[in-house]
Amino acid sequence: MDKTEQAVALYKKDYHCSQSVFVSFCEEFGIGREQGFKLSKFAGAGFLWYGDFCGAITGALMIYGLKYAPGEKQDEFAEEIFFHVCNEHIRRFEKIHGSIKCRNLLDKDLSKEEELTEIRENDLFNLKCPGFVKDSAEILSQIIKETDERMLKFRSASE
User: Fold this and answer.
1) What is the DSSP string of 112-131?
2) Is the pTM of this model over 0.85?
3) Which of 18, 127, 152, 157, CA to CA, is 20 to 30 A from 5?
4) Residue 19 and residue 2 in contact, taking contact as beta carbons nearer than 8 Å
5) How far is CA 138 from the centre of its chain?
6) How many CB atoms lie within 10 A of CB 79?
7) CA 1, CA 67: separation in Å to the nearest integer?
8) Angle 129-158/3-12 helices, nearest 10 degrees?
9) In which element (H, E) is residue 19 found?
10) When comparing pLDDT for 72 and 32, which is higher?
11) Rounded to an integer, what distance in angstroms lies between the CA atom of residue 110 and that of residue 125?
12) What pLDDT is recorded for position 9?
C-alpha cells in the first residue's frame, strides 16, 4: 500500500483528514505514528471544527516542514524551498477543488451547528473528504519527488 492509499485507509478508519495525511508520511521523518496522530489532531475539520483551512492540506504542510523547513539554524535556501513547496501544494489542490477551505469544499459551514448537522445527515465527510485526503497525499508525494529530483540535479551541477 502506498502512502496515498494509507492516507485514505486511515481516513476511512475515522481519523481526521489532517491525521490521515500526516501519519502516512511522518515515520519517514522520525515521528512515530502515535505521536503523529497527536500532533496533527488539531487541524482536522478545518482547524478544530471551524471549517477553515482543509486539514488534508495542513497535514501535508506539516510534512513539508519536517522535510524542508530550516530548523534552529536559519537557512535562506531551505526557507525558500519550504515556502515554495507549501504554496505549490496549495495552488495544485485549489486548482483541482476550487478552494482550500472546508466550508467551501463541503458547501457547508462546520462552525455552525445546523450546517454541521446537515453535513452529518448527508454523509458529506464520507462522500467528499476521502477525495480531498487522496488528492492532498498524491500532491505531497509528487512535490517531494519533484523537489528532491531538482535538488539532486542542483547539487550535481554545483560539484
Assistant:
1) SHHHHHHHHHTTHHHHTHHH
2) yes
3) 152
4) no
5) 10
6) 13
7) 22
8) 150
9) helix 17-26
10) 32
11) 11
12) 98
Place of cell 501535508: 60
Average pLDDT over residues 25-46: 94
Angle at 60 between CA 54 and CA 66, to 5 degrees: 140
Tens digits of per-residue pLDDT, 82-129? 999 999 999 999 999 999 999 999 999 989 999 999 999 999 999 999
99's grid cell: 478552494
CB 138 within 8 A of CB 130: no
- The predicted pLDDT at position 100 comes to 97
C-alpha cell at 105: 469544499
- With DSSP H G I counted as helix, E B as strand and the rest as coil, what are the percentages for the chain, rounded to 5? 75, 0, 25
Which 3 state secondary structure label does DSSP give 45?
coil
